[in-house]
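Lab meeting, action items carried over

1. Structure of the two-component assembly. Owner: GW. Status: complete.
Input record:
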Amino acid sequence: MKWTVWILVGLLMSDVVDVHANPDAGFPKSPEVHADGRVTFRIPARSAEKVVVWSGVFGRDGLALVKGERGVWEGTSEVLAAGIYDYTFDVDGTTTLDPHNREVKAWRRMASQFLVPGSPAKVWEVQDVGHGEVHLLRYASEVLGGAQREMRVYTPPGYAESGEKVYPVLYLLHGSGDDPSAWTLVGRGDVIADNLIAGGKAAPMVIVMPHGHAEMAEDDLANERNGGKWYSKNNTAFYADFFSEVVPRVEKRYRVRKDKSGRAVAGLSMGGGQALEIGLNHGGEFGAIGAFSSATPAGDEDAAVKVAKLGEGGVPELVWIGIGKGDFLFERNEFFHGWLGEKGVAHEYVVTEGGHEWGVWRDYLEVLLPKLFR
Amino acid sequence: MKWTVWILVGLLMSDVVDVHANPDAGFPKSPEVHADGRVTFRIPARSAEKVVVWSGVFGRDGLALVKGERGVWEGTSEVLAAGIYDYTFDVDGTTTLDPHNREVKAWRRMASQFLVPGSPAKVWEVQDVGHGEVHLLRYASEVLGGAQREMRVYTPPGYAESGEKVYPVLYLLHGSGDDPSAWTLVGRGDVIADNLIAGGKAAPMVIVMPHGHAEMAEDDLANERNGGKWYSKNNTAFYADFFSEVVPRVEKRYRVRKDKSGRAVAGLSMGGGQALEIGLNHGGEFGAIGAFSSATPAGDEDAAVKVAKLGEGGVPELVWIGIGKGDFLFERNEFFHGWLGEKGVAHEYVVTEGGHEWGVWRDYLEVLLPKLFR
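Predicted assembly:
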């Protein structure tokens, strides 16, 4: 079988750039998730003196690795609960991604990810059910000076074969460190929707994931020097893009409802604040809001400015606000919960365990989807 | 503007895991592509003694970085030609991805990527033209024991609005280190198609990117111990999935042609070998083959086995084979070129500069697409 051998040689030679340079060449398996829920991490670092895995689940000390054969550091965790975890390596004080793990969380501070499956399978695991599709759409935003932008759109199982059927639509917004891919690649919104729909727990719906950054700050330090004003400027530009470009394009391209009861908006962190502003300022157009760990308005004055059109045209039938006790935005959500109460806006306010993290947002999505379009 | 300040604090606090652990916390901009084509790289590595950027374009010595403020290493390249480059950092001998660059090439050996734009824009740059869509489809493969698999499908601009119009279809296969996302995320096949179609240089077509791995080797070392037999076993399983699952599902879901002249198959490396086997063994079903830097059969005996059905039902009208002079598969392609000649199979055999690399494959796709479905 000359052929197969050739290919193997090819594999080893095909990344010539590194081979000559990296004495640790090779493909260690990392992370290796064992059947019992322990996880083994490996990274080649021949000359390193200390290698640690940082992850929320390993606490303040991290998981220390031990140097083994051929300069490959290795270590195995205790049994971990079913979940999706992120981590980085610390090699002698330098933070790195796992160079052998394709599952990358492209947050502003990036991390590698791994998944410990549950038994039975968790709602964020791909299961043997009917699957929807995720579409990547690019467009030139006239209102943003012709900028090339993108959005992702989830269509539920059966959409393509459903003829003239019109579906309700959820606009699902990401956080300040994300891009439109975050809700699928990290949040697994498509997988969660598939499983809830298959179980009859959520209505088949279209989920639109637009790009919440319209004005990118040059960098965070520049933004800080500028008093953080980028966030306000960004939201204003995003709302223009959302209403002038995203919604009309979606309503042209997809069979989606345009009535209040058939439209919802939700988001996390920055996107939660955007969802509140969009939904509460356009109460006649959106029937539901989901605000996850949100950047809510931070005080009376701020709320008065940001939600100036509250009640004009109505209020969404459902305003669902979730916040973790450990979230740095907790006090702010407490304030806004009170403010909405004073204004007489009916809403569900849910305080949970957890902080400002994807595990919480996946849970919130699992809670929210069944409440929509019923 | 309390609100904006709060969000900023949020950003800084939102990745608490690392903040306490990493004295180099911060978000350096890396890579920074300057207007003149120079590129600056930055990585925090406070205690490191030597940091180098490895990339084909920097040659055997790489690009050495210099330690600057707050432990951030930095260095700037010479002016680089327009292109898409990949690189890794070498921190005291440890290979790492750029922890601040979201553009990750998820090859078996991973790398970070950056793009130096051209003037005028290159065919692989997103331009202000009509855009197609890229769809992610998941399915359970019966023929592979119910395995959950995925494919990506590009539909050309206007597809959704084109009523009953039926399009030609190209099946585009990835290499042994890739997954179905490689042809879009790294190869930018969707962008290349958009631009060629917009310029009238290629026919509007559907491009299907299935998963070429059906049997995953446990790891490469295990595969090596096994005499590399995984590759044969994998291809056999892949062909079963391709003909029993991928093609029927595509033909059910999309308006695509089913006649020989309306179907083509192409691929790179392992996928190029697969394209040759599929196309030459099913000459009555595929009108064109594109084989990029391919794992062609490696000798008479191998070819006789792998292309046993050559000529049954016909031969594709176009067999296009491209190989770089610097490719480790060059001799093998030379052999197969001769073998096809002996068998009287008309084909285009193109030898180019370059090795086994994405720059070459993007170029080949740009050459191939205009030849299809004309």
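2. GW to write a short summary for the group page. Key points so far: Residues 230-253 of chain A form the longest helix (24 residues). Chain A has ten helices and 18 strands.
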